[in-house]
C-alpha cells in the first residue's frame, strides 16, 4: 500500500492478547523523527483474526483503531466535535466502499491547563477516537480509511497533501 506523503506508516508489534493472529500499524502525520509520535496527529490500527469468531465480532476478523490529534482549545470546547470525529471515520469507510458491521467506539475530547511548574504552558486540547468494527471484503479500503481519519483529525483533509498547517496549538506529549 502507498499512503499520502504527509503520513508515515510503519508496522509495529501487535498485542498478543487480543486474538490468535494480529497485525498492527502506526501512522504519524508529518513526524519530526520516524518512529516517534507526531505533534500533529498519530494513530494505530490493529487487524485481528480469530477462527472461533467471538460473539461481539460477529465474524472471524476485527479491526481496532485509535487516532488522536491536538487541537486549539476553542475547538476542543465545541459540543459537536466528538460526533464530527466519529462521522469522519464512518464517512472515510463508506467513501472507500469498505463494508463493515458490528461497529463500536468512543470519541473523547480533552482540555488541559498547566499548574505549578507547567503554569506557563498554554492551555491545550485533544481529540481521540477509539473504534472497532468487523470488516467485510477487501481489507485495503479499511486501512486507507483509517489513514484518512488520522490525517483528518490532524487538520489535513483529502487533497491537502503538502499544504502547511498554520495556527494549530500542538500539545507536548509526555
Structural description of this entry:
- The protein is α+β, with helices and mostly antiparallel strands.
- The chain has one domain.
- The protein is 19% helix and 35% strand.
- It has helices at 73-76, 81-95, 140-153; strands at 7-12, 21-29, 42-49, 61-71, 99-112, 124-136.
- Strands 1-2-3-4-6-5 form a six-stranded antiparallel beta sheet.
C-alpha Rg, in Å? 17 Å
Low-confidence regions: 166-174
Strand portion, in percent?
Answer: 35-45%
Largest sheet: 6 strands, antiparallel
Helicity, as a percent range: 10-25%
Q: Tell me, rounded to a whole number, the average pLDDT.
A: 88
Helix count, per DSSP? 3
Number of domains: 1
Q: Report the strand count.
A: 6
Spatial arrangement of strands, main beta sheet:
1-2-3-4-6-5
Given helix and strand content, the structural type is alpha+beta
Distance between the ends = 31 Å
Order of helix and strand elements from N to C terminus: EEEEHHEEH
Shape: globular
Question: Secondary structure elements and their pairing?
Answer:
Layout: E1 7-12, E2 21-29, E3 42-49, E4 61-71, H1 73-76, H2 81-95, E5 99-112, E6 124-136, H3 140-153
Antiparallel strand pairs: 1-2, 2-3, 3-4, 4-6, 5-6
Helix pairs in contact: 2-3
Characterize this entry briefly.
This protein has 174 residues and is α+β, with helices and mostly antiparallel strands. It is built from 3 helices and 6 strands, in the order ββββααββα. It has one domain.
